[in-house]
Batch of 4 targets.
Target 1
Amino acid sequence: MASEACSKVRVNPINVFWDEGMLNHETGIGVFDTGEDPGFLDVLEKHPENSDRIRNMVSILKRGPISPYIAWHPASPALTSQLLSFHTPEYINELVEADKGGGKMLCVGTFLNPGSWDAALLAAGTTLCAMKHVLDGHGKVSYALVRPPGHHAQPSQADGYCFLNNAGLAVQLALDSGVCNKVAVIDIDVHYGNGTAEGFYRSNKVLTISLHMNHGSWGPSHPHNGSVDELGEGEGYGYNLNIPLPNGTGDNGYVYAFNELVIPSIQKFGPDMIVLTIGLDSSAFDPNGRQCLTMEGYRKIGKIVHDLAKQHCDGRLVIVQEGGYHVTYSAYCLHAFLEGVLNLPSLPPLPDPIAYYPEDDTFSSKVIEAIKNYQKDKLPF
């Protein structure tokens, strides 16, 4: 079905890598993400990083309007040797021992429960499969539909619901493959992609760009601020571009940030591969963020990023799933983003069921200009 539809419109499919085993990561119930029962609430909510959010993402891609343009691929778990390309042996051993011991809370909100380690290995392996598919020339655009997420996981530390840095492992695979000398990572999760940034903080072969709400550090597991002055170190100085956006930044603000900061940086860096880590928690209705992207904003970002890949990377684009915790709207925003990637004029956009927010982009535009002025003399490229 996918190949027939794609041939009619002369468009390559989006290659989605997925395995149901990732649903076996159980995060429990409690007060938001604490896992705690205070004793005075009749109804406890599911942890925000639960399997329902991913089930809806899978189903909308299988039955939604763009389903004919999706090619589904199986995946396999990552091997320990592959994990060591990004993570330290000591940290991997800590996770293995925690799994053997029946589970452990690794940091606030981040629970490794029975089944979690196998799901994490599948998420990492799925992302590596998605990257390898593109590196081997079997497709141009791959999407790793994974959980648990990964972009907060540092080489030696779990953080923010993340155990293994799926995108970081894929970037390292691209660099080691001989196909790519330089890789750009664009992170649009509402939270700073601190783990990915730390992994390549001293490298001039990886440009890490993170657009996130200006949330700062949230404790020992996340010491990074995501501020404009975290630029990298050594050879990597100037290759970590943080774009902390004010709360309430919406579609216009994000597009302005892409036009003023992201696009010029990618053009000057000249990557051989773009990795887009997609967080759907930047949406206007997400419980874990305070930004105001709608489906239309995600749709525009999808088109911008794919255009950049076609201009600079021969179309090579690997998309890796991160956050997004509104069980319904995250799936809709994912669909919209991939609509933008496909950019099919003959395909009417999926209507937005709930978004209406009168955006005022005056403040966000001023912040973006200030970031631009600060960084213009500090980026070596």
Note: The CA atoms of residues 102 and 114 lie 6 Å apart.
Target 2
Amino acid sequence: MAALSAWFWNERFWLPHNVTWADLADPAPGVEYPKAGHLLSALPLALGIFVVRILFERFVARPCASLLHIHAASAYRPAAPNKVLEMVFASITKCPDKRHLDGLSKQLDWDVRKVQRWFRQRRNQEKPSVLIKFCESMWRFTFYLCIFTYGILFLWQSTWFWDTRHCWYHYPYQVLTPGLYTYYVTELAFYWSLMFSQFTDIKRKDFVIMFVHHLATVSLISFSYANNMLRVGSLVMCVHDASDILLEAAKLANYAKYQRICDSLFVVFSAVFFITRLFIFPLWILNSTLFESWEIIGPYPSWWLFNSLLLVLQVLHVIWSYLIAGIAYKAIVRGKVCVIQEPCRSTYVVTTDRTTY
């Protein structure tokens, strides 16, 4: 076990040349550097956030939904009770192929189209109601708004917010301040809580994709914390949270059937997304991680990995910007907006009709 730990925490991978873990282990009195062990505090905090979410949805979001006349009743017609089909649905397949359809049609003496209709109605029964989706979006909107506000207030007083070169001066001997620690660990705990809640929420078809996404986010935050790239990491988190607030607000308006507000929020969300992901992120953050850091501290193995992951993230930004641009065009043509799940950081608004998927 000790050999595995020594291999994983190899100084030549994690730290710049001529820096060792011993150099960071004994800072001056009153000074503290990030340590991997600090990340464990995110786990009980994640559990606390999960409990707060349950209470928030029960005592805040649901009353708000009731005021907006959003109720728990499903918009879909329930499937007629049938023990044979229910057994197939639960234990064999939820989307039967032609062979299964023909067999069930003969067994029940039903038309194939009737069997198909039953399975479609049964699948629709498992979709979360508008009330559940409204409560979930209201929780995320509230969290993103609070953490983004905190991030802006904290970063506004930070030197690296105004001059990104300060992300690398004296690296890795950069002091961990209480504000930076709170910002980082709270974000990390939130994504841990999303992973926990996936197992208690209604299981959706994008379960695996979103689980992998949350795991990747947790890994990236933990990685940047472990090698003390918190300053630039805080900028990355702030840039991403900016558009997520508007996204959740648009979804709330959509669930409440305020179509004009939803359309307007979508336009604002698209503009903020393009500005933050296609301009601010590459020109401000990537410029710092790739060029300013090269000039000030020089490259080393974890530096290459960190920048590779940020470049992959930027590729995703470009792909999603292209899709959102196509969505915006359809919105102009059709003038209607709805919401679907996105296999990346969160969800994005898609325009087709007034139905919510």
Note: Residues 33-69+130-338 form one domain.
Target 3
Amino acid sequence: MLRSIATFLCLRCQPVTALPLHLRSRATHSVAENQQTVEALYDLSVDIQKVRKLKGWVLLQSPAYTKEVAELLKNMGASGPIIAHILTSHPEAVLCNPEQIYTQKELWMSVCPNQRELVGVIEKFPASFFTSSSHHDNQRNNISYFQSLNLNKRVITKLMASAPQSFSRPVEQNELMVHTLQQAYQELGGEEANMKIWLQKLLSQNPFVLLKPPEVLRENFLFLRDKGFSTPQLLHLLSRLKGFVTELNPDSMRRTLLYSQDTIGCSETELRDIILRCPALLYYPESTLAERFEGLLSAGISMCQITATPTVLELTTQIVNYRVQQLKARGYDIRTGSLEVLNGTKKDFEMSFGKLQLRRERPLFNPVAPLKADD
């Protein structure tokens, strides 16, 4: 009796061979997941673990069109790694009906120069391409509207990619905002001949400007006018701020202007001049400005230097400190020199820094000094 019980327990306790990790993962989720989708994604080298972690609900859906979506992307010129990247970052794409995707492709190709560029857009903004079929009519109407404005195709493509919400809503809402922008430009003295270029730059810099209520623009200009800015100055600010003019609001601008005036110790007229040379001051909160003023002053830069070149306030404290150290290593004293060398993008600074280095290394040539001749 005891021997039979022992034999039974030994049989029950036999070691079980472990499944490989990817098979274990499949087995764990096999009850609810659509196995055809999972297998197709595996075949495409999609990161299934990442999909499960971030958007696991996609794997539960049926029907799914994984192979069809991949085939469409491949026919457009997408490589295997690019397809895998798109489906890993936006797995919802496999739930789009193939007919819906073909319609999307036709819409996008009406503004995209070629399929290669469209693949690049889809890789960066997959959610903008794989959208609901219920938006197709609005998309088509909005594309036609922006084309009627004679905007560059690449600008329209950028709008569709960066701010797809503006294309999925009724065209009348975009017409109203564009009309408000054009009206503001004309009322401030902008030339009709330059309006298209101005509008393109504005929309390129901030595509989300279309999603703002038109009233925001009017309120901001009324506030700035009350602060003493003339009509030509307002046009200058509108052109410099471009799309970011709708990101402002009177309350935040009021606090920023008060803080800047108190910190600099200047008159309202002087402050307006500083704002015109550095409009970005209008949208920085007090905390950001406080940190940047403190960083510049700690580096040995005077307030007079800051007001002479206010655009240095657009640089973070980390960037300023790095550039000051770089200049100091080359013998440039930022406390007595111009701050213009600090300004600009990384490329701008490297060019300015390179010129300083060449000037330091190049020997001065005096055309009047006699030439040394061999004896």
Note: The two ends are 122 Å apart (CA to CA).
Target 4
Amino acid sequence: MSLRNLHLILYLLLLTVVTGEILRPRFYSETCPEAESIVRREMKKAMFREARSVASVMRLQFHDCFVNGCDASVLLDDTPNMLGEKLSLSNINSLRSFEVVDDIKEALEKACPATVSCADIVIMASRDAVALTGGPDWEVKLGRKDSLTASQKDSDDIMPSPRANATFLIDLFKRFDLSVKDMVALSGSHSIGQGRCFSIMFRLYNQSGSGKPDPVLEPVYKKKLNKLCPLGGDENVTGDLDATPHVFDNQYFKDLVSGRGFLNSDQTLYTSRETREYVKRFSEDQGEFFRAFAEGMVKLGDLQSGRPGEVRFNCRVVNRIHNDVLLVS
């Protein structure tokens, strides 16, 4: 049998297996038993290189799973025939640390070629980002397939703006069978990481078109943000999402209670009657927040489109078959 025919058969077998699998823990226990330890090792390396990177990787799960399920579509680069999700309104100049996923994929390909999907890498890496920064650890379900395409329009139509309020967020999460409690807990992902000045300029200088700042902002905190993000300044400058941006804890919720939420979509969780009680509970009980967050991440990871998929060899491009030869486009 020729090498190219062997590649073709291997690819078709992989596509069939991954398409038919149901998500379950320890999916790679026989085919790649070291998969989860390899992902955590690479995430530790990334964190040591740049502490912020693990928060950025965790955010990929949210931006991936809400758009046609958890299928690594967010990782795909644009092609002449496809406008992907990286340049969508919520992602452009915002999502980052794709190279961390590339490093993880490279390490997994060396250990277990053509076995672990990029979609599963995102799920494992997101869990590890939380665990490595002091947050909860949980068992992840694996066996996802990687999408064959991506859609900028789908991302634009679904992902919320930093201006979103609690009512909008509740409705969005409800579409995916995620409860109000799930939504508030998962918003706690902002316990680590940073956001851009671009996302808060309207809060500081023109909330709701008033020409004035958001009156909910605590005065000392508002002064700090004004200095960080002056009118006419560089809107790509970043600020901490909470007071402990490198530690996953419940400080995020304590900050919301005190009027020190960075994003409007965060602070509105405390000003809204529908979500305030959960914010208060999580601010007072870190253990309850950790449990709710882990449960929410598992539910988020269950979102699937049901579309055909594959195991990509490179997370940024889909595999292609042309003239009976397996190629990577």
Note: Residues 1-20, 322-329 have pLDDT under 50 and may be disordered.
